[in-house]
Design a protein that fits this description.
This protein has about 600 residues and is an alpha+beta fold. Helices cover about 35% and strands about 20% of the residues. The chain has an 8-stranded mixed β-sheet with strand order 5-4-3-6-2-1-7-8, with helices on one face. The protein has a 5-stranded mixed β-sheet with strand order 9-10-13-11-12, with helices on both faces. The radius of gyration is 29 Å and the shape is elongated. The structure holds adenosine-5'-diphosphate and magnesium ion (MG). Magnesium ion (MG) binds next to helix 2.
């Protein structure tokens, strides 16, 4: 074993920096949080080239005294935490005293600051964490920090950065969430010289949300609120018709801090259980206020997760706030499915307030059903939800209706014909329940799951590369608001998704306009499929198993739906593929067909 030595300070700083500063958006987050903690009323954020070359954060907060300017950049230097007791009741966003040291270690930093009431400010510059200049300087009250050439001295990290567009997207979503977190602070975000966001800072949740998300909620904000002795919730939830293909527009804030929480997410979605379809997600901007001692923010290094002392109460508060908002909008909430104790099975309609009274002793009925977060089954939702109507209709290049079943047969076959499959004669008897094809084949009866079979055919075609997408051009492009990050990911991968049959164009910073979709995908699935694609593409460049997931998602959406009647030609086409033995399982591993032999049938009738 080599001799154990203490790490050089600079090396230790670089290692620590890797944990705090992953990309430009993490720098922006830390700097803006410092400004918020400094009591700023106005914060301006400016970036160039995705923040890689230039980030500036200016605030009118308390400033830093000349004596403290250098100290602020030391590791574990903080003015926010004095002793272990303080850790239990943190009211500031920062407290670890790591951020400035970490940022300075991997960039060129310039700070201009003047304490409130001080005659003079101070200017400090650092390069790779080393102070290169400290001098008195003219500065307005408050602090400006400029970060240039991020990761200039850590080339390995630099290599991991995505495109400027992707990094800008990530910064924009960080700023969006910080700006939403504090309606009392005026935020301005400037990207490559252009103002992207500006909030008034008038303490009004509605003006803040409208300024940042106006378009998102144009279909309607619903006021949501609830409060009891432990927790209060206020803010907005989106109408069911404004539900989205992903969760990027679900914002939760706990005591002014943006957090991610499966608990809160489940509470919200449970409230929409009967009003939206599987795969669609409600939007929200909800502010929770809880006693600091009832919530632990110290569980996650990036501080985006928290632990609640009373999870059930928190769940109920969000659930009832959202349900109450929906009730007001709809007049009544159909909450029949929540009644365990009803003695008849007839459908019930009840006002939320009444519902709450009945269940106040045991609101955990709702909570328990959600104890395993995220387990809301597809069947549960789709069984209750009304089908969503889409007024847009694609007009195919050849003028055909894409839902026509004879057209589906065309997709199954492409250029092939029945005779291409070496299959002995079979006879399609018909279709049962609009799901199962019944076939007589070589002395047995076969049942084929038509959706699973079609899905497999698509998947194999995509995988083998001989999928020639037939694109449907949309006369009216479909606008999908996927959020800044997903939008950047899609645009960066536009040639790949073109191969799949989509063409997308930038439509504002956080949306894409979709001009073509694969002709076998329903227009109403566009946003969901693109969201799935983003999810897969976001981890890194598409690799084999990731591509499989992408293909699975597309195949599933493209496959004819169970529950829809099919024409005989379509049934025969599918049966031919299955009987030729080329398909056995759908891409998700479910069987495509099963056989009932003559002897099984004979046994059933006591013939043998
Ligand atoms: P932390 O925020 O965890 O305390 P940082 O490294 O982010 O650690 O900041 C170190 C200290 O520098 C803070 O505790 C605060 O005293 C001071 N500071 C940083 N940014 C600002 C700012 N914009 N205005 C006033 N003080 C600041
Ligand atoms: Mg900080």
């Amino acid at each position: 074993m080599p001799k154990i030595l203490e790490l050089q300070q600079h090396l230790a700083d670089l290692i620590a920096a890797g944990e705090v500063v992953q990309r430009p958006s993490s720098v922006v987050k830390e700097l803006v949080e410092n400004s918020i903690d400094a009591g700023a009323g106005v914060i301006t954020i400016e970036i160039s080239s995705g923040g890689m070359t230039y980030i500036r954060v200016t605030d009118d907060g308390c400033g830093i005294g000349a004596d403290d300017a250098k100290t602020a950049f030391l590791r574990h230097a903080t003015s926010k935490l004095r002793d272990a007791d303080g850790l239990a009741a943190i009211g500031t966003l920062g407290f670890r005293g790591e951020a400035l040291a970490a940022i300075a270690a991997v960039s060129r930093v310039e700070m201009l600051t003047r304490e409130h009431g001080a005659d003079e400010g101070v200017s400090l510059t650092l390069e790779g964490g080393v102070v290169t200049d400290l001098s008195p300087g003219g500065s307005p009250e408050g602090t400006t920090i400029i970060v240039r050439d991020l990761f200039f001295n850590t080339p390995a990290r630099h290599k991991f950065m995505k495109s400027d567009r992707a990094e800008s997207g990530s910064v924009a979503s960080v700023v969006l969430s910080l700006a939403l977190s504090r309606p009392d602070i005026s935020f301005r975000f400037i990207k490559d010289g252009k103002t992207q966001y500006h909030t008034p800072g008038d303490s009004r949740i509605d003006s803040c949300v409208y300024n940042l998300l106006g378009r998102e909620f144009e279909a309607g904000f619903l006021d949501a609120e609830s409060s009891d002795e432990v927790i209060s919730v206020e803010g907005f939830v989106g109408t069911p018709s404004a539900a989205r293909g992903n969760r990027s527009y679900q914002f939760f804030f706990v005591n002014g801090r943006a957090i991610r929480s499966i608990l809160l997410q489940s509470a919200l979605e449970q409230a929409y259980k009967n009003s939206i379809l599987t795969g669609r997600f409600p939007s929200c901007v909800l502010y929770l206020t809880i006693k600091p001692s009832d919530v632990d923010v110290n569980v996650h290094p990036a501080k985006t997760e928290v632990k609640f002392v009373s999870e059930k109460q928190v769940f109920d508060s969000v659930y009832y706030a959202a349900l109450g908002a929906l009730e007001k909008a709809q007049g009544v909430v159909q909450s029949a499915s929540l009644f365990d104790n009803s003695d008849d099975n007839s459908f019930k309609v009840m006002h939320v307030e009444d519902f709450r009274k009945v269940h106040v002793a045991e609101p955990s009925n709702v909570y328990k059903s959600q104890a395993v977060p995220g387990l809301r089954t597809a069947g549960e939702l789709s069984a209750n939800a009304p089908a969503q109507k889409h007024t847009l209709k694609p007009v195919g290049s050849a003028g055909h209706d894409v839902t026509d079943s004879s057209e589906d047969a065309r997709y199954i076959f492409s250029a092939d014909s029945l005779t291409d499959f070496h299959v002995s004669p079979f006879r399609v008897i018909g279709e049962a329940l609009n799901v199962y094809i019944i076939v007589e084949y070589e002395g047995s009866v076969w049942f084929i799951d038509k959706h699973a079979a079609h899905e497999r055919i698509h998947f194999d075609a995509l995988k083998s590369g001989d999928y020639e997408p037939m694109s449907e051009s949309l006369i009216i492009p479909v606008v999908c608001r996927l959020g800044h990050e997903s939008t950047a990911i899609l645009l960066d991968n536009s040639s790949f998704i073109e191969e799949l049959g989509f063409t997308v164009e930038s439509f504002g910073e956080d949306s894409v306009a979709v001009r073509h979709i694969p002709s076998d995908i329903d227009i109403s699935d566009t946003e969901a499929v693109l969201s799935d694609l983003c999810l897969q593409l976001s981890s890194s460049s598409p690799e084999a198993n990731q591509l499989d997931s992408i293909y699975k998602a597309i195949a599933c959406k493209a496959a004819i739906k169970a529950g829809r009647a099919s024409g005989m030609r379509e049934l025969e086409a599918l049966a031919a593929r299955v009987m030729s033995g080329e398909l056995s399982h759908c891409p998700h591993g479910r069987p495509v067909a099963f056989e009932m032999t003559k002897s099984t049938l004979d046994k059933g009738f006591g013939r043998i």
